[in-house]
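cache lookup: miss for this entity combination. No prior model stored, computing from scratch. Input as submitted by user K.M.:
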Amino acid sequence: MEWDWGFVADIMPTLLQGLKLTLIVTLLSAVVAAVLGLGFAIARRSANRNVARPVAFVVEFLRGTPLLVQLYFIFYVLPDAGILLPPLVAGVIGMGLHYATYTAEVYRAGIENVPKGQWEAARATNLTMRQTWVHVVIPQAVPPMIPALANYLIAMFKETPLLSAITVLELMNQAKSVANSSYRYIEPMTLVGAFFLAMSLVSVVILRWLERRYGRLGK
Amino acid sequence: MTEPIIRIDRLEKSFGALNVLDGLSFDVMPGEKLALIGPSGSGKTTILRILMTLETISGGHIEVCGEQLFHMQRGGREVPADEAHLHHMRRHIGMVFQHFNLFPHKSVLDNITLAPILTKGEPRAKAEARAMELLEMVGLADKAQAMPSQLSGGQKQRVAIARALALQPRIMLFDEVTSALDPELVEEVLLVMKRLAAETDMTMLLVTHEMGFAHEFADRVLFFDKGRVVEQGPPDTIFRQPTHERTQAFLRKIIAAGHRV
């Protein structure tokens, strides 16, 4: 088997298109995971057990089942119930929902890290619950969480090839399709690995910087 | 005759099996300066935390500014207060904590203006002008832009006092406000409180281990033991001629520990 630079040049535009979609899916899923995770974390802390219990159950359920199975359900099983989602939307929902259960844990740790005295000071100055969250708790809880959240962002990025299973044309899927039509696997798969490695190395540098800037949870 | 601003009536508070307050009753008149003293675990901090609605009650009644604190009327019946009622009642009360509890992510000025802007809808300019007046009063006008982490403990506590005052409560609660301070920083905080006591007609409740300060500051001293008021009276009486044996024992211990009374 020989490495063919001409073939590399041929498939590069297709792979770059896949890479672009991979990045888009990662970012959109990250937004879903970040927002939904905060919702899960706050709901699980609710004094109302009719809210906290079901949410806790859903979170444990989603964390306890594989992402690939969840993606199959969203894309191939939900249509039986009349819910038909485009691959990209299904992928973003699936990844976002799955990772929201992990970010929820990060948020929980971050929120519990805010001293009790801060809640009491907010109450003593007569802030409402909402104002306490928005102006006192979240601004203090979030900075120490940033490195942990960034870690999950990198993990999500590396899991995007799973979306090829539900026909999202991300990097892995593009590589598979050029490989299948040309019967050459070495160039496309090597390039996919190289792309992921390059992006991960950049992310690790950024992550280290975030850790220095914001510190770690529990420091 | 004026009505009491706070009426505490047969108040019960238990944490699990532990009865912290056991049928506690006392009244506070408007403008009165009260010092609550007693051994730790006697319930004196708990009563402040209950007045600030940081704790719930297990039984009894509290009336603040003529309204029930933990109860309200609904359909002619008395029911436990909801969050809206507690929010309404907390306007009357401010609190300064042992560990300051400043918001560390906000500047000194923002610590003071946050609540007036959010809870009273004050325009920022007005809130800031008042905050500056208050910082002037506590001697920290030059620290308005500083972050809490840049301040000493005494300075933090003076900012915390300004923050509580910014909401113009009728009742101020001081919970061991000098206990967490290095000895050389205690005086600056006490000075601010003395001025406050002299210059305002606010009602003040003070939990403290500084007997000398309690003597100077208070109109009335309540000695707490095991969740009840054992003895109360003017500071001169409580500190010079306590009648109850437990008060005498407590003061002896305090003096033996080297505190001046």
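stored under new cache key. The first helix of chain B runs from residue 44 to 51.
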